[in-house]
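During the first year of the project, the team set up a workflow for recording each protein of interest as an amino acid sequence followed immediately by a discrete structure-token representation. This format lets reviewers and collaborators read both layers of information side by side without switching files. As required by the reporting guidelines, we include two representative entries from the current panel. The first entry is reproduced here exactly as it appears in our internal archive.
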Amino acid sequence: MGQIWILKDNKLDLKKTLNIVIKYSVDIIILNLLKVEKNSNLINSKYHFENYEISKFYGINLLLKIILDKILSLFFLFITSPLLLLSSVLIYFEDGFPIFFTQDRTGWDGRRFKIYKLRTLKNIKFIKTDQVTEGDSRLLTIGKFLRKFSIDELPQFLNVLKGDMSIVGPRPHMVQHDIYYSNLFNQFLKRNKANPGLTGWAQVHGLRGPTNDFKLMERRMEYDLWYLNNWSIFLDLRIILKTFVIIFKHKGV
């Protein structure tokens, strides 16, 4: 996690500076060169500093999250392996290879990674950035079922084992979509202050599926930012439990 230190003095327009740096997925610390006092938040024994925005993803809690991710990923991959095998066979008999679909997504600190999914679309040429909608003609017959119950997302447990993703976190978007929405919403890239997740706070509040409506994306972003600011291991466990209900209550497309 990167940091930006802002040195506050008579010449600095703090509000303007914050508006510039607030969009980045970094910690922000303000060092006040005008304020000299004696307390615990001091630099060089005299300059006051303020943790304006600090990530909660560090230390022992982050280590526990990583360990929980690895254990649960191995467990879920084991118990769903028959389903993954059957799905792979059905994809092959309907439309041949490839079985898996990969795509560049944006991860922690903006790092790109290849996300894994079971292929649900026909092996034809189409615009890769076009999101799948209900009744999409590109969908395989088996693909409709896989997406309905989020079975196509199961290979992402491999992304979790690799460290690209977490079980819980903001859902990763296509790189092109991140670039587009970051120009619309000043704090959009702050979603990258943690590993993206298979499920998240936005998803358990019904914000799943396509995000063609910018208002819908804004709501998803707000839920993601709330999660980042209020994260805890217990919140992750709550989201995981709620996800099982959401999958059947609000089926995907």
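The second entry, processed by the same pipeline in the following quarter, appears below.
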Amino acid sequence: MAMSQLLFGKHITYSLSGVARLGVADHMDGEPRPIEEIAEKAGAHAPSLYRVMRMLAGFGVFREDPPRQFALTSMGELLKTGVPGSVRANAIMFGEEFSTRAYEHIATCISTGTDGVSEAYGKPIWEVLAERPEQCESFQNAMTSSSAAAARAIVKAYDFSGIERLADVGGGHGELLASILRANPETQGVLFDRPEVIASVPEGQFAGCADRVALEAGNFFERVPDGCDAYLMKYIIHDWSDQHCRTILDLMREKLPPRGRVLLCEMVVTGEPRPTPAKLLDIEMLVMTVGGKERTEEEFGALFAASGLRLNRIVRTSRPICVTEALPA
């Protein structure tokens, strides 16, 4: 039975993605509601929606009350739009074509070390997303949603005071950078990402600190912003092979002042045998990226050393993400 539940994992993932895309949770609260009412508001087929919600109720996402009524649990609340810790955007992304097609090739990934996206489309994930604006938007929405939850934990755990100008390299829509700047009114910021990402930064994203932030478009394999005493990357290094990472870190080391620092916000793989978020995310990197992976403390240390940096400390947060700090060697 335990093995069967693991094998049926895709049914859970795709069901969560489906109800998230339909916005089912946005029409619910803690009070039981008839399935017909929920389906009408979500634009769904009531008998089919019932079967999906009945299954998800067994995993604590919904609470089923007879006759055929459902209420949200605290876990199900996370499928709502805009609530703290919302995973709705992430759930939608996991059901996107670029993700589902990539996982069809996981046996090839395991056999050869190639990635599933390249096997499915003949090109890496970033080129696929660049050609598919709607799926790219879905991806960016998921990254922004993840950033909102992680940002609070990062800002609470790490002391950013003393940084004069901070560059968030590959910073997406700037959720993390905005959180840092609001908490540190003396710090200037630079949001640096691909042109299409910078162009889609929501209006008002930097409300309250817009006068202290600059938006720069560029390629972090070619350059990073000038005049910064700290470079920050969240969930960027894990997308790339060691060779690619050294290219990015070399550019930062070249511009880093003697008292500067590089901050990588990533999960850290530990030796504990139980399932961990880092080990699960590592499989996503295996299938979705060319050479990307989650790294151990020792692997981070080696990566820094190859670029003239040294691992100074790893700051744990209340979430699985850590702040890995490197200084000039």
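For the second entry, the following points were noted during internal review. The chain is about 45% helix and 15% strand. The radius of gyration is 21 Å. Both points are flagged for discussion at the upcoming steering committee meeting.
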